[in-house]
Amino acid sequence: MRLKNLDLLVAISIATLNVIWAFLPYHWLVPGILLTVPMIFIIPGYVLTELLFHKRSLGTSYRLICSVSLSLAIDITGGFALNILPSGLQRSSWAMLLAVVTTLFALLAVVLRSNSFVQVKTPFRFRIAFHEYVLFGLSGAVLVLAIWYAVLGVVQQPRPGFTQLWLLPAKEEQKSCALRLGVHNFELTSMNYRVVLSAQGDLMKTWSPVTLASQQEWNTTETFATASSTNVSVKLQLYRLDRPESIYREVNVTLHGCAPPGASSRSTNSASPA
Fold first, then answer.
1. Are 8 and 109 in contact (CB under 8 A)?
2. Are 257 and 176 in contact (CB under 8 A)?
């Protein structure tokens, strides 16, 4: 009786250590792996297996299969639940969820074990037949290949190109009414653009053509006059010359305490590879 629930006590202890580990300010790789891997793949499923089969003596291979499969099922179900909750999928929320599930199942298993009249005491022997070794090896190979294929698929997945357009306040001192605008070509090929700058609905300036190779950037700075109580609505539009009728990108900015264009204007252009 003294060692009857030792396995469940170890499971609760590992779950508690994971909770403590999750809330520590610093995390080391090796201790984290030693704590989290059993907690994710074995402990919750093992405790649930002991709860479901408390009156039966399972073989080592069947207990291992049930532990891993039920742990994965608990992880998947718990992930859906955490994704709905405000806490989200965080390290601490995962540790708390698995610890609560493990502790709850372990306590129920303790109660059922104490109320069970069938006491079957068999010495623990870790015996796995040859065909079971083969099945475990094939399962592990399939798991490794699946993870490897998923990682390669994400890395090598073709991504469509895009163009980045920005219109931001210049960081130069004493020029709060200056705007820095630019285009970065992340397309797969060289592109020709037309950049149109408008203020208060009136055309201010146009740059065309702006030819950029892939991964090349173009930028310029426009300065407005300073005013005491005037706001200027500035719009920057980007067109592709192969589609001149449609706006490809658009950015809007409102300048506070600036006058409409005409008071002063300065532009400096540059084109440099990223």
1. yes
2. yes
Residue 209: asked if its preceding bond is cis (omega within 30°), the reply is yes
Element (H, E) at 192: strand 191-199
Contact 232, 260 (CB under 8 A): yes
Banded model confidence at residue 122, pLDDT cuts 50, 70, 90: low
Chain centroid to Cα 144, Å, comes to 21
Beta bridge partners of residue 256, listed in sequence order: 231
Query: Do residues 211 and 191 touch, judged by C-beta distance below 8 A?
Result: yes
- Asked whether 181 and 220 are in contact (CB, 8 A), the reply is yes
pTM of the model: 0.47
Pseudo-torsion of CA 28, 30, 34, 37, nearest 10°? 90
* Model confidence at 38: pLDDT above 60: yes
Residue by residue, DSSP assigns 107-172 as HHHHHHHHH--------------HHHHHHHHHHHHHHHHHHHHHHHHHHS------EEEEEEE--S
For 210, the 3-state DSSP assignment is strand
Whether residue 203 contacts residue 177, with contact meaning beta carbons closer than 8 Å, is answered with no
Q: 145-201, pLDDT tens digit by residue? A: 777 777 676 556 667 788 999 998 876 555 567 889 999 999 889 999 999 999 888
In residues, how long is the chain?
274
